[in-house]
Design a protein that fits this description.
Number of helices: 4
CATH topology: HIT family, subunit A
Distance between the termini: 26 Å
Strand order of the largest sheet: 1-2-3-5-4
CATH class: Alpha Beta
Radius of gyration: 14 Å
Number of domains: 1
Number of strands: 5
Length: 140
């Protein structure tokens, strides 16, 4: 079931405010996070409007984590981060999604700490977003 007020369910201007859809995977949708202080930051949102991991069957949860692992592998291959931080919040949206945030040791911004939800430090041009999306899509 879709929630008419949910950015991920509706995939409209609500999600456009912070992300750009990259592609669909088996049980998830992948979005490039527009704020790119951490190059390659994406969101992997479940296709169904579920709030918690416990709302999924074992098979559904395993498929969702397989999608997350696939995206993480692509980010590691493309950008060679020292670490990827994974964040699943959704206190207000209540739609299961993970932020995958590549962290780079040579970039002092937030290395060794929790990533900011939206630091509003680095936005790209339309061409740069397109290029980044195509690179990630090709790896997926």
């Amino acid at each position: 079931m879709k929630d008419q007020n949910c950015a991920y369910c509706m995939n409209n201007e609500l999600v456009d405010a912070f992300g750009i859809k990259i592609c669909d995977l088996s049980v998830s949708q992948v979005y490039l996070f527009k704020e790119q202080s951490h190059k390659g930051r994406v969101i992997v949102a479940h296709k169904e409007h579920v709030s918690e991991l416990v709302d999924l069957t074992d098979e559904g949860r395993n498929a969702y984590f397989a999608d997350i692992a696939k995206v993480a592998a692509a980010l590691h291959k493309l950008f060679q981060p020292k670490k990827i931080n994974y964040g699943a919040y959704g206190d207000t949206g209540k739609h299961l999604h993970f932020h995958l945030v590549p962290k780079y040791e040579d970039d002092s911004f937030e290395w060794g700490g929790t990533f900011a939800m939206n630091p509003d430090r680095k936005h790209l041009s339309a061409e740069e977003y397109t290029e980044l999306i195509e690179k990630i899509k090709k790896e997926l």
